[in-house]
Amino acid sequence: MSTLSVRIDETLVNAARVAAKAEFRTVQGQVEYWAKVGRAALDNPDLPVSFVAESLMSLAEPREDSTPFVPRSRPPHTPVA
User: How far apart (Å, rounded) are the C-alpha atoms in residues 42 and 1?
Assistant: First the structure.
């Protein structure tokens, strides 16, 4: 992956530094995460931002670590596929 230097407001960098520490990311990784979430949220304005962020995180999980989706409204005694 190539890198590029950009100027970012110091206040935003400081906020990213705090969030990055809490999320166990680098400052660069935190800014990239915010950019991805923001872009996806703008592309899907009808979805809550928290849903967009959680969806992006789930896409990054290894498939073997995922759990199958089980709907809550499944009728009783319906076998799970």
Answer: 25
